[in-house]
Amino acid sequence: MALKTIRSAPLYAAAIVLLVFTGYPFLYMVMTSFKTQQEFFKSPFTLVTSIQFGNYVLAFQKGLSSYFLNSVFISVLSVFLIVIFSALASYPLSRMRFALNKPLFMLFVSGMMLPIHSTLIPIFKLTKDLGIYDSWMALIGPYVAFGLPISIFILTQFMTELPREVEEAAEIDGCSHRRIFWSVILPMVTPALATIVIYNFIHVWTEFIFALVLITSPENMTLPLGMQKFYGELTVNVPALMAALTAASLPILLVYFLAQEKIVKGLTGGAVK
User: Fold this and answer.
1) Which residues form the ABC transmembrane type-1 domain (predicted)?
2) How many domains does the chain have?
3) 3-31: per-residue pLDDT in tens?
4) Is the pLDDT of residue 247 over 70?
5) Among residues 210, 266, 268, 272, which one has the least CA distance to residue 83?
6) Residue 100 domain flag
C-alpha cells in the first residue's frame, strides 16, 4: 500500500500543480469581483477581507441582465433544437438498415470538417435576404446547423452500441418505432445527451464572431458582445469587470457540474466495442 502511494506521488503532485495553474485565475477573478476599486489598487493580489456586492449591482445596472437573458434564451433554445434534431437523425442512422444509411451518416459527419467562419459571409447575406438580421433567429440557425454534425456523430456511435434485444422486446410488446425512440432509446443514451448538451451549450454561450457580425442592436446582444462593451466602459474599474466575468461564467460551471458524471461515458460511448 505504501509502495503504491509512493509511486502515485508524482501524479498527485502534477495534478496539484495543474490545479493551481488552472484554478488560481478563476479564484483571483472571483476574489477581485468582491473588492472595491480602492482595495484593488492598494493590494491587487491579496485575499479579499470583506465581501462587497456593489460591483455586481453596477454590472447589472450597465445592462448585464439583458445580455445574460439573451444568452440564456439563445443557448437553451439552440441546444434544445440540436438535441431533438440530432436524436431524430441518429436513431434511424444507427438502428435501421436502408440503402443510404452510410452515405447520409458520412454526409452529416463531413460537416465537422467545414471551417465554420468560412460561412460567415454567406450566412450574413442569407439573414439579410430572410429579414432576420439583427435578431435571435439570425444566431440560432447557424448555432443549430454547426452543432448537429458532432452531436449526430456522438449519438449515432452511442446508439449503435445499444443491445438490440431491448428494442426487439419492445417491438414484441407492441411498441411502435416512435414509442421505442422516446421511451426506450433516449433514456439509454442519457450520457451521450449530457455530453452534447454541455459541448454545445459552452460553444453557443461563448460564441463571439457570428454574434458580432449578425447582431447590432444593444437589446439583442449576447454576453460575449456585452463583455466587449463592458471592457470599454469599465476598463479602469477592474473589480466591476471581474464581477461581470464571474456572473457570465457561472452558467457554464453550473451546467458542467450538474452533468459531469455522464460526460466521460458519453465521450467514450461507441469508442470501445
Assistant:
1) 68-259
2) 1
3) 666 777 788 888 888 888 888 888 889 99
4) yes
5) 266
6) yes
